[in-house]
Amino acid sequence: MKAIGGGARTIALVGPEGAGKTSLAEALLFAAGAIPKLGSVDGHNSVGDASPEARKRGASTELNLMRFDWMGDPYQIIDVPGAAACDADAAMALPIADLALVVIDPDTAHAASVEPTLRRLEASRVPHALFVNKIDRAHGSIDDLLATLAPMSAATLVARQIPILAGERVAGFVDLALERAYHYRPGQRSQQVPLAPHLREDETAARVHMLEQLADHDDDLLEQLVSDQVPSLDTIFGDLTREMADGRIVPVLFGSALNGFGIRRLLKMLRHDTPPPSATAERLGIVGATVRLFKTGYGRAAGGLALARVFGGGIAEGGTLTGAGGQAMRAGAVFRVQGTATTKVPRAEHGDVVAIAKVAAVKLG
User: Fold this and answer.
1) Chain segment 186-217, per-residue pLDDT in tens
2) CA–CA distance, 142 with 92 (Å, rounded to integer)
3) E strand or H helix at 348, and its extent?
4) DSSP annotation string for 91-137
5) Architecture of the 9-281 domain
6) Which of 102, 235, 221 is nearest to 177 (CA)?
7) Of the ranges 39-53, 267-281, 338-352, which one carries the lowest mean pLDDT score?
8) Do domains 9-281 and 286-356 have the same CATH topology?
9) What is d(CA 4, CA 277) in angstroms, rounded to the nearest whole number?
10) Which of 95, 350, 125, 124 lies closest to 245 in space, CA to CA?
11) What is the pLDDT of residue 144?
12) For 100-117, what is each residue's pLDDT tens digit?
């Protein structure tokens, strides 16, 4: 399949502590082929949370950066810790993301903990989706969870899937746009299966509800539904992409990072629906070539490194940077970051998230 292009897209993983954000990052890297083996936080062998402090605590203590390629395009992950002590880092990192993926667990008792994240994303106008992790451990229904979460979100929560149950266990899902059923297989791609007759009524009702939610912001789709016309897949997927980018809806998917359930379906959504870096630059009011710093003192190098995202141009070692106050300086070496590992690169291009040496004194943002 042809690459989309337009620069590396950046996805921020956000949400409460313990929801499994770093595990999800690991699962995305593994599914995309960026790492040969799936690590784990508990096993102390994940790409993220690899610092001694994070290993000791068993949870994220700072921003984690990761990168992978998927179907010809580069993607970057900013794994944002859920701890309140990291709020300042989160406030600087979130705006530069093209999409935020809010990671939550399926327990309705924990739902209230996600409201501050949703409000922050709404205030910064960052497009976002929900990923319900640990679905294999769910004891309640997705419908109950979404009903609990709905008052916490200004945008409409739109379920893109319904679960397939084997007893009380979630064994797969139905993709409501494609009307296809899939069974989970640990560590492998989900297997497409025929849509069971007993699921057809639930699938039809859920799909109609999803289309009606999309039609709230698309008069043409509304007219088609009123006229009993079947909308095209192009119309449905186009509305899902556009309405999320506009902040009108929050798509909801589910899966299990530790078992690899739903991860490839999530990758497909990220590929098609994540806005390009140019849209983020427009949201931030950035015109022309800009290096937006969002973290200084990063890493263990002397003086630390500055984490930055590049918009509208490129930057190389020795390039001139001009601060908000007009002060000019030379950029030091430029690095890509994968967990705690840094790799020097000759140049960073539009959309890239990199670490830059010798600019730690510049004002953030």
Assistant:
1) 888 999 999 999 999 999 999 999 999 999 99
2) 32
3) strand 347-348
4) HHHGGG-SEEEEEE-S-GGGGGGGHHHHHHHHHHT--EEEEE--GGG
5) 3-Layer(aba) Sandwich (3.40)
6) 235
7) 39-53
8) no
9) 12
10) 125
11) 94
12) 999 999 999 999 999 999
